[in-house]
Amino acid sequence: MVSDPTHRHQSVLQSLTQYVEERVPLEEIRKLAGKKKVPAHQHSLWYYMGGIAGMLLGVQIITGILLEVYYVPEINSAHASILKLNSQINFGWLVRSLHSWGANLMIAAVLVHLFSAYFMKAYRKPREFTWWSGLALMAISLAFGFTGYLLPWDEVSFFATKIGLDIAEKMPLVGPVIAYMLRGGDSISQATISRFFVIHIALLPALLLALLGGHLMLVQAHGISEPDDFKKLPAEKKKYEKFFPTFFFKDILVWILALNILFALSTLCPWGIGPEADPFAAAPIGIKPEWYFLAPFQFLKLIPPAVGPIEGELFGILLMSLAAFAFVLVPLFDKGSSNARSRVATVFGVVVLLALIGFSIWGALS
Ligand code: HEM
User: Which residues have C-beta atoms less than 6 Å from ligand 1?
Assistant: First the structure.
């Protein structure tokens, strides 16, 4: 007797599906995804930002692992290993460009996600912990940028790191200890590269992935927030989209768009590298940090040497720390029950956002 091959394939597939379903709660996951809905309104565009940040994080992990194969975290070889990646390793230049441009795009996406969640008041009950875990993710993303910047060991990366650590040192009490521990001494040396490398490839990824797991679990638990004007609509006027498959496939379309931008930037403007760092040379004139640190850098430059009895830079750092702390406290201040408080939070957000944009442009042009 000859058995029907199509039938045989089907029964193999059926037994395989049954094997997996008995062990993995696929049906539960399917039900959960089916229940999730996304409010559809004129600000829905902002709901894509967290997903874009997550997709770019995926790109960073893949390209970061590939870079680790060739990068040497050694003071005499770091710069040469990047030159080799750029010119001798097949597609090394592309992987490095994707990682460097990806870092910038990811930080931009996280910043947009932060401010859109802020202005949509998504920090209010019950999403306070989603917000706080998000703030920690922002800090970690910036720490990724700061530690990664030193690794190519070129002139700009060396002096930008030096300026950054000198500023961190000014923080009262903890500043000098933190700067000393990060440097591994009083000056930037092999110990600094080793520390920055371990922080960049092990400590920060572990922290980020653990926090992101919590962040996404909370998003899943509370569903997507609804802005005030949507909440006020009568039930029949409120429109929703199913997360799966409608929003999910739109998410993927947006990711493809973002990936196109990333590949266009990486291939049309490949990431370069400057001359090797010389710790004994004078800092190049007009040296500036990356764009995401430009605003605080420019702000500190404008403060006079002393403000009353306090040293100018210290005063500036305290002022900026207070503004950052206000973002931590905002869910406790604006709980949605008082219009006046809600307005204060919005105005504060607008002022901070405009200050960040204004000081960044000023810093870039000066
Ligand atoms: C690596 C960085 C981050 C990733 C990958 C990420 C990912 C996500 C994703 C996928 C969502 C659901 C879709 C959406 O609303 O966009 C979400 C929601 C949310 N995220 Fe993030 N996030 C990150 C950082 C942040 C930051 C910096 C904040 C703010 C401080 C934040 C606050 C929130 C809040 C409050 C929600 C709930 C939004 C709502 O319910 O409308 N996240 N995040």
Answer: 47, 49-51, 53-54, 57, 110, 113-114, 117, 120, 122-123, 127, 130-131, 134-135, 137-138, 141, 212, 215, 219, 224-225
